[in-house]
Specification:
Elements (H helix, E strand, L loop, with lengths): L2 E3 L8 E7 L5 E7 L2 E11 L2 H14 L6 E6 L4 E8 L4 E5 L4 E11 L4 E3 L3 E14 L5 E7 L1 E6 L8 E6 L4 E2 L2 E5 L4 E5 L3 E2 L4 E5 L4 E4 L20 E9 L6 E7 L2 E2 L3
Antiparallel strand pairs: 1-4, 2-3, 4-8, 5-6, 6-8, 6-9, 7-8, 9-22, 10-11, 10-21, 12-20, 13-18, 13-21, 14-17, 15-16, 15-20, 18-19
Length: 259
């Protein structure tokens, strides 16, 4: 590779539209344009056969019909983005007295953001067995964790996944995931959760499915505003019916304008 461009914040277009909602409150609607990346380099081949093979491999990897994962390491931290080639690679003429050929690759990040390559998983509601005994009536002393402190050290909101796991027999329960810092709550109600069922809430895509692919979004309230804001966030997982077999986790990647 010779040059890379479009990885940093650069001249990214940002459109902001302010409007007055029906309740009289002013909102800002911000749209980011897809980020464009250019990579320029040279194929170093020993002969015409190797050159042909390497060009074919590069063209296959940059097929515009396929999405690709791109990782960028700045020497300290590794970043990740999902990209789509804008077109097939462009090739220059063969460099004199060699089998070297220059190339250019054009990529687009449709989702705009770069993400931290490492995913963070934090428990927000979990039963912990503290003492087990083997008396005539075996028993286990337990305690529940129902709060987590999350520090978002970036400048932008994070829209995480929330995973709910059930270790109890079928039961209808009301579950709440509360971000006390911003006063937003996700509520699951009216749904009978089964034993060993896993429900995944995606706050970015605004979806909720169980492990069988069943769409559960109608059992939830409107949670489009639920996110992890920059700074300290206090997250609580609450089971209204006090069922001890419900565990909740939050899973996210930090996102960045540029890397």
């Amino acid at each position: 590779f010779k040059t890379l461009s479009g990885f940093a914040e650069g001249d990214t277009e940002r459109q902001t539209l302010k409007y007055i909602n029906a309740d009289g409150e002013e909102y800002s609607n911000i749209t980011f344009q897809p980020r464009k990346i250019e990579i320029h380099g040279t194929i170093l081949a020993k002969n015409k056969y190797e050159l042909s093979e390497l060009k074919q491999r590069l063209s296959k990897a940059c097929n515009p019909r396929l999405e690709r994962d791109v990782y960028y390491f700045d020497g300290i931290q590794k970043y990740y983005a999902r990209v789509v080639p804008d077109c097939l690679p462009e090739y220059g003429g063969r460099i004199k007295n060699s089998w070297f050929v220059n190339f250019s690759i054009y990529l687009i990040i449709p989702g705009f953001w770069w993400y931290a390559a490492e995913c963070t998983n934090i428990s927000i509601a979990k039963r912990v067995d503290t003492i087990s005994t083997s008396f005539t009536l075996p028993c286990t002393f337990t305690e529940r964790t129902s709060e987590a402190a999350i520090n978002n050290d970036t400048d932008f909101e994070i829209y995480p996944e929330i995973i709910i796991k059930s270790n109890i027999s079928s039961s209808s329960a009301t579950l709440k995931i509360v971000n006390e810092t911003i006063g937003e709550t996700i509520i699951l109600s009216g749904y009978e959760i089964s034993q060993n069922e896993t429900i995944t809430i995606n706050c970015d895509l605004y979806t909720a499915y169980n492990q069988d692919g069943e769409n559960l979004i109608n059992y939830f309230n409107d949670f489009e505003a639920w996110c992890i804001i920059p700074g300290e966030n206090t997250i609580k997982g609450l089971v209204v019916d006090n069922l001890s077999g419900i565990d909740m986790y939050i899973k996210y990647k930090k996102r960045y304008l540029g890397v």
